[in-house]
Design brief:
The complex is a heterodimer of chains A (about 475) and B (about 290).
Chain A (H helix, E strand, L loop, with lengths): L1 H27 L3 H27 L10 E6 L3 H18 L4 E6 L4 H10 L6 E5 H9 L7 H6 L10 H4 L3 E2 L2 E2 L2 E2 L3 E8 H7 L12 H10 L2 E4 L5 E4 L10 H7 L17 H15 L6 H4 L5 H6 L5 E5 L4 H6 L9 E4 L13 E2 L1 E5 L7 H15 L13 H5 L7 H10 L9 H18 L5 H17 L3
Parallel strand pairs in A: 1-2, 1-3
Antiparallel strand pairs in A: 3-13, 4-5, 6-13, 7-10, 7-11, 7-12, 8-9
Chain B lengths: L1 H35 L16 H7 L2 H32 L6 H9 L6 H11 L6 H8 L14 H13 L3 H10 L2 H10 L3 H29 L3 H6 L9 H10 L4 H29 L4
Classes of the chains: A alpha+beta (about 475), B mainly alpha (about 290).
Chain lengths: ~475, ~290
């Protein structure tokens, strides 16, 4: 900082001398053209001097870490940020000056700001990263390989994590982050509507197939009359781009990218079978039209307002709290079931997870990893669900309203999975959405097979470009 | 003489900060972007020089043509629509009536509102089930289209927004209309020219310089369409405007080099259109 100030004081002296000489030479010159030339030359010189002033500011030591202070970037805001800060404050107090964690809250445009920080060589020491981007950031050399420290850790060893969650933090057989949350999909259903329709509740331990699911949803898709005598349509289920396309692809036994992270499986027989399940749902009339969903705001509102009898959401979705705050006559009893089983007989629901990653500059830094361990262990007590095997009961301590769902949540956690992410994931996913999923939503008769083959071909071209 | 010299010196000094800022935040990034467009820079990592590979990839990318066509098609309809609308409103607001000041304020309001805010409101207006437009059509027994959810109605959805926004563009036309000598209209009236003839033979030709300027600005604006398109999107790829695609390539796919190349191609396209318009200017733009 002192060096920066000193350099700039000297520069200002130079500027002062320069301006004096400039005005002197300008006054002496004769003829307007000559003056214009001098003015132009001096303007360029002034620009160079001024830009040097700015560059000294930009080029100062970018490593803000004085050895003790670590910056932790998070997308948390509002109440979540308050809770996050409490955790950080607690860890800082326990550290006794050994280290200090500073919070960097980025509540909007999180990834754009993170990538700007990275481009400006000011990568936060720790930051949250969603599973889809871990392979991208790892391949670009932004985040630290923590494999050795992670495997050697006695506090948060990889063997204790659910395999489906842990895989999301892996790239090229190395670990690049520590997952701090598992949020698998679960089927929420309206027990009151099930009773009204005379439909048996699904088994909370699962086992139902996608055909059985569609059959149940069909029985719950009926025309009803409200208290004002107006007719409305109740649907058995709702799909509007959520759940994601992976859910249906996995249902058929297919996948988008193979386990090796290289093979494109979008046009495989199993994937097309999975897309066929999606088409069956869309054509069966058990879900509102895509154009109709936004009329109530968002898809979860359909479930809350009892317009859809079943909803596939994360275990973290707080329907219990929302419904408890509704007027008595609008409340209903929530039931829980695992996702319908996939081709292998298991309910492989999508598991949303995020990891805390370390900046590349901290690679091999044992102290930094120790801080990461401390923070992650605190997160396990904060959010549901902790991605650690054998901690399902902890969910009730964090959110008591989830107690009735515990047996189902246990099944979901054990079987949920993430996709096989690659650095090219966003591009491939964009094609899946624009060329297949959104077209199927708008036109249930859409020829998804032909399009899937075209998308698969383009996805392979994208993968081939990887050096 | 000495005072004039001093004044000029002070003038240069006053302009210097702006010139410096323009160079630093305009010229330098512009020059840097030429280099970036020839690299594989993905924001996150280092970059490698790859020559014209980004440009080759762009011309082999189907999405480039899709987004370009969506944008060109929008420009073809939106630019004449906005010009005609603004011109018509200016003509009516040029008539001296009691409440003309009020109407001038009301019609200017669209240009004061942020693009994102407009998009959010139009998301409701264009809702297929409970939106304003379809609700009004419902009163007359007409079933409205699915607007942004129907690929065939995405372009009309954006044209509706363009039509609404065109109202605020009347100001330049109104100013130009005030400059047209009244004697010309009086002479034309004496000669027996009706309203249409006066408009086509006097008003439009004398407004042609402003129309020319607004055409160029309208084309630039149409090709740079981003904020409302980013918020609203559109069924399938129908809402994938060029700038939306560029933004996605840069910030979702982490291909800043590729996105910069897209930006330069856009610049060349707009420049070419502007040059063509300038060449044709002599055939239809009135000048003294």
């Amino acid at each position: 900082m002192l060096i920066y100030i000193k350099v700039n004081i000297n520069l200002f002296k130079v500027i002062k001398i320069y301006l004096y000489k400039y005005t002197k030479s300008f006054l002496r010159s004769k003829g307007s053209m000559k003056r214009l030339k001098i003015a132009f030359i001096h303007a360029v010189c002034a620009f160079l001097i001024f830009s040097t002033v700015f560059m000294t500011g930009c080029g100062k030591n970018t490593d803000d870490n004085d050895g003790n202070t670590y910056v932790f970037a998070t997308w948390a805001a509002g109440e979540e940020l308050k809770e996050f800060q409490e955790i950080i404050d607690r860890i800082n107090n326990e550290a006794n000056g050994d280290f200090y964690i500073k919070t960097l809250s980025i509540p909007s445009d999180y990834y754009i700001k993170i990538s700007t920080y990275v481009a400006g060589k000011k990568t936060p020491d720790f930051f949250w990263l969603t599973q889809e981007l871990i392979s991208k950031y790892a391949s670009m050399g932004v985040i630290a390989d923590i494999t050795d420290e992670f495997k050697a850790s006695t506090e948060i060893n990889p063997d204790t994590f659910y395999p489906g969650v842990l895989a999301s933090a892996e790239y090229d057989c190395k670990y690049y982050g520590v997952p701090w949350i598992a949020n698998p999909l679960i089927v929420y259903y309206n027990r009151d509507l099930f009773r009204e329709a005379g439909v048996d509740f699904p088994d909370p331990l699962g086992g139902w197939t996608w055909d059985e699911f569609i059959d149940v949803a069909s029985k719950l898709t009926v025309k009803k009359t409200d208290s004002n005598g107006n007719q409305y349509q109740q649907y058995g289920y709702i799909v509007d781009g959520w759940p994601n396309i992976e859910t249906f692809i996995w249902a058929g036994g297919g996948d988008i990218v193979g386990e090796n992270g290289k093979d494109i499986l979008i046009d495989s027989h199993e994937t097309l079978k999975g897309l066929g399940i999606l088409q069956k749902i869309l054509k069966s009339g058990i879900t509102p039209k895509y154009s109709e969903v936004a009329s109530l705001g968002s898809n979860n509102v359909w479930f809350e307002k009892q317009r859809a009898a079943m909803f596939m959401g994360g275990i973290q979705d707080n329907f219990e709290e929302k419904i408890s705050k509704l007027p008595e006559e609008e409340r209903f009893e929530i039931g829980y079931a695992p996702m319908p089983v996939c081709a292998d007989g298991k309910p492989h629901g999508f598991d949303w997870t995020a990891s805390t990653v370390m900046s590349k500059k901290l690679e091999g830094d044992k102290k930094a990893f120790m801080i990461l361990e401390k923070i992650t262990k605190e997160f396990f007590k904060w959010k549901i669900a902790p991605p650690i095997k054998g901690t399902v009961e902890q969910i009730v301590e964090i959110d008591p309203l989830k107690e009735p769902a515990l047996p189902t949540i246990k099944i979901c956690l054990e079987n949920a999975r993430s996709a096989n992410y690659t650095p090219e994931w966003n591009e491939i996913n964009d094609k899946l959405w624009n060329r297949i999923y959104s077209k199927m939503l708008n036109d249930p008769d859409f020829d998804y097979e032909t399009e899937a083959k075209a998308v698969a071909r383009e996805a392979r071209e994208i993968m081939d470009k990887r050096k | 003489m000495k005072k004039r010299k001093k004044g000029k010196n002070i003038g240069f000094l006053f302009v210097l900060p702006w010139v410096t800022g323009m160079c630093l935040f305009g010229v330098v990034p512009l020059v840097a972007s030429v280099f970036i467009s020839m690299t594989d820079w993905g924001i996150l990592g280092d970059f490698n020089y790859i020559g014209l590979q980004n440009y080759i990839d762009i011309f082999n990318d189907e999405i480039f043509y899709v987004s370009l066509w969506v944008t060109v098609r929008y420009a073809i309809f939106a630019v004449p629509l906005t010009i005609c609308t603004a011109l018509l409103i200016a003509v009516f607001l040029n008539i001296q009536t009691k409440a003309v000041g009020f109407f001038r304020s009301v019609f200017y309001m669209p240009s004061l509102v942020s693009g994102v805010a407009v998009a959010v409101v139009f998301k409701w207006i264009l809702d297929p089930n409970y939106g304003l437009i379809n609700s009004v059509l419902n009163i007359f027994g007409i079933k409205g289209p699915n607007w942004l959810f129907d690929p065939n109605w995405v372009l009309p959805s954006y044209l509706v927004m363009a039509f609404w926004g065109a109202c605020g563009g009347y100001l330049t036309y109104l100013a130009a209309l005030k400059d047209i000598p009244k004697e010309l209209y009086e002479a034309a009236k004496i000669e027996g020219a009706g309203f249409i003839k006066r408009t086509t033979k006097i008003t439009v030709p004398l407004l042609s310089p402003i129309i020319f300027y607004n055409t160029i600005m309208g084309i630039i604006s149409a090709f740079r369409k981003f904020s409302d398109a980013y918020v609203l999107g559109g069924a399938g790829d129908e809402g994938r405007f060029y700038m939306v695609n560029l933004y996605q390539e840069a910030f979702s796919f982490y291909k800043m080099g590729y996105a910069t190349a897209l930006a330069w191609i856009l610049f060349v396209i707009i420049m070419d259109i502007t040059i063509v318009l300038n060449i044709t200017k002599k055939y239809w733009v009135y000048s003294d």
